[in-house]
Amino acid sequence: MAAAFSFAQVLRFSSTPFSLQTNRNTLRSFTLFRPFSTASSSSSSSSYSVISPHKLQREKWRQPVVSVLELGGVKIARDDVVRDDPTNNVPDTIFAKLGMQLHKREKHPIGILKNAIFEYFDTNYSNKFDKFDDLCPLVSVKQNFDDVLVPEDHVSRSYNDTYYIDSQTVLRCHTSAHQAELLRGHTHFLVTGDVYRRDSIDSTHYPVFHQMEGVRVFSPNDWDGSGMDATSFAARDLKKCLEGLARHLFGSVEMRWIDTYFPFTNPSFELEIFFQEKWLEVLGCGVTEQEILRRSGKENNVAWAFGLGLERLAMILFDIPDIRLFWSSDERFTSQFSSGQLGVKYKPLSKYPPCFKDISFWINDSFTENNFCEVVRGVAGDLVEEVKLIDNFTNKKGMTSHCYRIAYRSMERSLTDEEINKLQWDVRDQVVSKLNVVVR
Ligand code: FA5
Ligand code: MG
After folding, report:
1. Which residue of 203, 267, 351, 356 sits 20 to 30 Å from the alpha carbon of 128, by its own alpha carbon?
2. Which residue ranges does the record assign to the Aminoacyl-transfer RNA synthetases class-II family profile domain (predicted)?
């Protein structure tokens, strides 16, 4: 499931100096497993000898929007991000999302929410928080993991969970990647940005989403005289701050705190809000590990940090039922929101019927669900609503079979049977050629 940071692992780290320039072409020796097998890369759609209009349409959709982007002052070409190279696992569909910066659109739910959060911080902390929302999403492994003490064997570092540009450079998988550097010059800051994860497919997970990181540093004056130790003082302040934010955004809402683990905070918490009959995790936070402060020259201080999932909060605020909708350019979606208007309830476009297709195959040792989801997204893009494991068994010979149910549904139109059958055949072809599984 989701590539969370909240799993306990052994603590070890290494640091590698980073420069985008020098890393672009120097590929180091590299031992992690490849995301997809090399075996055969041709997807032989033997049952379709003529290129169908759907295929043309899909290939057009797959085209990157532009070939050079400027992100946070850095010029990035497609070839810098997507390469046919064993240390790279970024598909074109992800490159196409770089630079969309939904958080910078004033009339988009993500931009509206960002501004409402800014308003809360500006009002309650007299404009003390410095704001960053244009930091480049291409970061070093050091920034993304080492600097925030993510252990070397932590699952989030794997090629299965993170998009690697080369062995030393990733698409940031959280805004915490900027914490350490900013701590050197700032005591109160908010970082908003797009983050990238190879993840499962359902209505609350998407491979590109937006986070807002918040950090506040205290000095001894702040907690002296509170009658509390520095850590308890910071933890209390953090919860008070985030509960205040939730009230500012939602008025009254059912929420609960869960104790958890992050490598970069201790103690650590998650906040969940009740939405669509379920508890939905909306943020992670905690008291910053002292080692991070020490390395930033702040050993006499204590700090808290949080990372909010902006899509999750916006889904609750605007009643948006599916995370794919944030990427819609359909005017029937975009025209429902206006700058500064928080909590306008989304009026669903007529709901088109889903179509379910099952696929069963014998898996191999290198099979992972994220790799399978990546294949399905590569074929069906945003037409895939959910991928669910519905059957899993091992036979007497020790072979394991998985059966997945794929829900196809467009947010904008009815899909034809022919179109869905074609997608499903392409998925079958590609799981065989890219994942080396045996379809049953
Ligand atoms: C983190 O990313 C931590 N960096 C948060 C943090 C920051 C903790 C600072 C402590 C201090 P996590 O993996 O739980 O944690 O993700 C944070 C939030 O991002 C989640 O609560 C959820 O709201 C959102 N999120 C995670 N994965 C997805 C996804 N695939 N799609 C949409 N939102 C997601
Ligand atoms: Mg989490």
Report:
1. 267
2. 193-348
Place of tokens 């070890």: 12
Residues 282 and 322 reside in one and the same domain: yes
Q: Which pLDDT band, with edges at 50, 70 and 90, does 15 fall under? A: very low
The whole-model pTM stands at 0.84
pLDDT number for residue 347: 93
- C-beta of residue 303 within 8 angstroms of C-beta of residue 287: yes
Query: Residue 396 C-alpha to ligand 2 middle, in angstroms?
Result: 37
Q: Is 8 left (phi over 0), alpha (psi -120 to 50) or beta?
A: beta
Domain that holds residue 378: 355-439
Burial class (CB in 10 A: 0-12, 13-18, 19+), 57: exposed
Same domain assignment for residues 323 and 434: no
Same domain for 311 and 377: no
Q: Is 245 part of a structural domain of the chain?
A: yes
The pocket around ligand 1, CB under 6 angstroms, is made up of 2, 4-6, 174, 176, 197, 199, 205-206, 209, 211, 213, 262, 264-265, 281-286, 305-307, 309, 311-312
Per-residue pLDDT reduced to its tens digit, 250-282: 988 899 999 999 999 999 999 999 988 899 999
Assess if residue 87 is contained within a domain: yes
**Residue 157 contacts residue 89 (beta carbons within 8 Å):** no
